[in-house]
């Protein structure tokens, strides 16, 4: 092993040791501004590439196809700012009528990480109660508040006993899972739902490559009118099939979401477009 290889190996070992010990997460939480002090630099590079750049690239299409900002040179209109909610963090949640939910309504944020989305909801809508569910290892890094409860739970298991919530929220969950797994996650929620419980997936709905002859179908689901702005001769989906191949994600079209809901006891009833790329795809018990 030459000296350069040896140095790389040592850096990688240091990186692994730090993560295994958990010091990276705890330091980040306690002193975020100092989280990379005295580190090899590899951590910062990974954070920048995976957490910042990858997320920004997901918003490139939006920044290039939204007429008001497509030619803008303002920093806040860049894909990076859109992706990280720098301009308007609430934009992640716009669309759905959160304020119309009655006082005390419970929302279960399934696969909610350490609770960043629920914290935002709790802050903007004081009448709501939030339950964040995620794997035990993840939830251990979160922090409870009076209105945000944290619960270690595997979403493939039956829901823990509780009164059925007003809404199950799954933001950026099912795009990681093929239909058979995604349907199992949704079926678990359906089993625990009341007739009034709603399901909300926040996901990107992939446009078809060509104009589809589906105007009648779209009329039956509010919020799904075709408002594509992609100019000819570009494909309507801007080559997103290619993107799926690279990222190994399972992004779905409207009809694929419809079928997923039907396979798990839900019915797709409405879509709210947000200012970001993702839509809020609302289901009700079938
Ligand atoms: C792409 S992240 C989305 C996180 C969050 N909903 C958001 O919008 O930022 C997927 C989440 O699913 C969680 N997850 C993965 N497998 C899980 C499982 N079997 N049970 C519960 N949560 C799981 C991960 O820990 C992670 O927090």
UniProtKB/TrEMBL annotation:
GO biological process per UniProt: methylation
One GO molecular function term of this record is: O-methyltransferase activity
Source organism's superkingdom?
Eukaryota
User: Which InterPro entries did the record assign?
Assistant: COMT-like, COMT_C, SAM-dependent_MTases_sf
Per UniProt, which keywords does this protein have? Methyltransferase, S-adenosyl-L-methionine, Transferase
Per the database record, which ranges form the O-methyltransferase C-terminal domain?
101-213
Q: Annotated region Disordered: where?
A: 1-23
Composition-biased stretches (Basic and acidic residues): 1-12
The cross-references to PANTHER family, in alphabetical order and at most eight, read: O-METHYLTRANSFERASE CICE, PUTATIVE (AFU_ORTHOLOGUE AFUA_4G14580)-RELATED
Q: What is this protein called?
A: S-adenosyl-L-methionine-dependent methyltransferase
Organism field = Auricularia subglabra (strain TFB-10046 / SS5)
